[in-house]
Amino acid sequence: MKQRPSFPAKLDSTLARNRPNTVGVNAPAMAKPAVTASPATPSERVRPVAVAQVSQGHGMESSAVRARMVQKLAGQGITDPHVLGAMGSIERHRFVDSALINQAYEDTSLPIGLGQTISKPGVVSRMAELLRNGQVGKLGRVLEIGTGCGYQAAVLSLLATEVYSIERLRGLHDRARENLRHLRLANLHLLFGDGMDGYAKGAPYAAIIAAAGGEAVPQAWVDQLAMGGRLVAPVVTAGASGGAQALLVLDKTPQGVRQTLLEAVHFVPLKSGIA
Ligand code: SAH
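^ thats the input. predicted complex w/ S-adenosyl-L-homocysteine below
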């Protein structure tokens, strides 16, 4: 595991305090408005780490690490300023287990429990950019299938007027709710259910994004997509029983559905039912 200078020491202890199972203890702290707050006073900024007013200092530390991550994303070809801005402001380290915090800003997927993973920042930003499709303002209503730990949902909530995010595993749905509480994202709606059916109550959607890969795109998703809307999803590529996947972009146009298959990706499988 690569260590980054100055970053992990403070975050470790900060985040250890914010694990879901200590929520009772942390409830008042989590009720504070988010996120990249500066230390309360200039003097705290120069205190040695050993004194460790960790909860005061980590915001600045992690925002610097995030800025580096955003630079790398830009270097990989992400150009949409809205996407880069959202990636720079959502604290990914709050969505991973405390043992993995040192890797939170590396371009890697990480386990989030129940056999699932948080997507790589590179993939989250790539899909968000495809979803936005160069639009000037915010996206309208967005449906996400596969909330997982809630990280991508938080990113999307900064890019869209409303986000509906469905998760089929109760344990992760609950964890996402916990992870997202501090952000108080009023336009983000977390739903527990089988995303195969989409979520008809929120339809039509300007955009639909899946974080799990199936054999095909369920018809419900296409039906719930607005005319002119775009769907981005990993799909198992034809004939590949080993589960090779590629990113699919589907545009719903008055002339019909237009599908484009892009680069290879690796997502957890899309599954039916709830658990
Ligand atoms: N966007 C997530 C990635 C989570 S991994 C993040 O930022 O962390 C994909 C998630 O899709 C898993 O949590 C998995 O349980 C969920 N999933 C798979 N099939 C699903 C379905 N039919 N409906 C809803 N969620 C599903």
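Confidence is low (pLDDT under 50) at residues 1-57.
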